[in-house]
Write a structure and sequence with these properties.
Structural class: alpha+beta
Largest sheet: 4 strands, mixed
Radius of gyration: 13 Å
Shape: globular
Strand order of the largest sheet: 2-1-3-4
Distance between the termini: 37 Å
Order of helices and strands: EHEEEH
Number of helices: 2
Length: about 70
């Protein structure tokens, strides 16, 4: 993580987030040292959210969950 506190989190969502979700995303990313958030809308993730902070990926997408189920069958 960047020691200057100017790390940018990359957030991917299936659709535009509402104000409540934006507030939660900002709180989550700030608690991990990010001062900026870049949003990308990608309907291919079906739903949920993927957050990239430096080398760490927080994948809560529906697509990822479906892939995990598919591989476990």
């Amino acid at each position: 993580m960047n020691t200057h506190g100017d790390e940018t989190a990359r957030v991917i969502l299936a659709r535009k987030p509402d104000a409540d979700l934006v507030e939660k995303i900002v709180a989550f990313t700030q608690s991990r040292g990010c001062t900026k958030v870049k949003y990308t809308i990608d309907p291919k993730i079906v739903g949920g959210i993927i957050i990239y902070i430096g080398d760490v990926i927080y994948d809560g997408s529906v697509r990822s969950r479906l892939e995990n189920i598919k591989h476990s069958l």
